[in-house]
Amino acid sequence: MNLISKDISDDFPISDKIYLNNASVSLMPLQSIDAMKDFLISYNTIGPDSKDSDSFVTEKLRNVRKIIAKIISCQPDEVVLTQSTTDGINFVANGLSFNDKSNIIIRGMTHEHHSNFYPWIKLKEKISIKNLSIDENGFFKLDDLESFIDDNTKLVALSHALYNTGSILPVKEIAKIIQEKTSFFIDAAQTIGCIGDIDVSKIKCDFMSFNGSKWLCGPMGTGLFYCNRKSSELLKPQTIGGESAIIYDETKLAFKEMPDKFQTGFRNYVGIVGLESSANYLLKFGLKNIHKKNQYLSNLFREELSKIKNIVLYGPNNPNNRTSIVSFNIKGINSQDLVDKLEKQNIILAVREILDTKIVRASPHFFNTESEILQVIDAIKKL
Length: 383
Hints:
Layout: E1 18-19, H1 30-46, H2 51-72, E2 79-82, H3 85-95, E3 103-107, H4 118-121, E4 128-132, H5 142-148, E5 153-159, H6 171-178, E6 183-187, H7 200-203, E7 207-211, E8 223-227, E9 245-248, E10 252-255, H8 269-285, H9 287-305, E11 311-314, E12 326-330, H10 335-343, E13 347-348, E14 350-354, E15 357-362, H11 370-381
Parallel strand pairs: 1-13, 3-4, 3-5, 5-6, 6-7
Antiparallel strand pairs: 2-8, 7-8, 9-10, 11-12, 12-15, 14-15
Helix pairs in contact: 1-8, 2-8, 9-11
């Protein structure tokens, strides 16, 4: 399918805005909004707390686990349903066992999203934090990683791609270095649904966390945590409830098997239905085709931006080393002022940070069009 020349904007709610902030929250296709509405009607018609509703929602939970497992190439019971990427990160940060000699390895403290930074920094009260030195694009030397790993290293925790520049880390090469020396966690919030097929069985990570509301075009409040079945034994759940444990001998507790051991309380059923629909919508086009469209749009955006006087572009030049995020500044124009002026023209971008520098971030997705990109470029030229 040639998605590059295909206009699918009619599949989304009609708007007079050009939305290029998908690295934060993406738009949802109409079919997913309808699916959520239909679910709520059916759920209330059946009776929310009835025998029929139990099998009804169980099927919805099973379906979304199956489709996410298909997207990342794992088993459905290795998919834990959460509310956000942050939930999964905290499962790992708070669930691993440490001693006073333990250390973990992270990348570029001041170049990382706070969700994949704060939970690890909190651990420095009881363990050592090793921080990999990075270049301007957020990359580190693989030799540095190898030299950091020792017998006391409990975890390597990295973002698959950076939220500010879109730089993609070579996770397969990193995994070869880690091998079975320690555990490997990946924050994949900026890659799942954006850069094509991602296979955890080939990456060989132990844990991965991402959400449904960015590149998967799902609703807010939906998150996914991949936990390798064997690696789940390394994590102690920090919450407990009727869904995650059983009681025996009157007072003894035991956690259930995966994925239930990490699932406490009711799930966001309506959000899960919307996520399943959005995931099916993406798969209809094919993740590789979506990646090609995203690359085309971001390459076009960068190329046209480069022609503008006083432009400063951030991130790798090689499109294979970045997502569809395009980060830039214009010398002499405050980044927040630029974003505010464009929003008054119904163009939605975002302000983010690279170290101490505020930058403008655009993040087109496959439903955006070449025409929209050129309209945004024209608006920037007139500022």
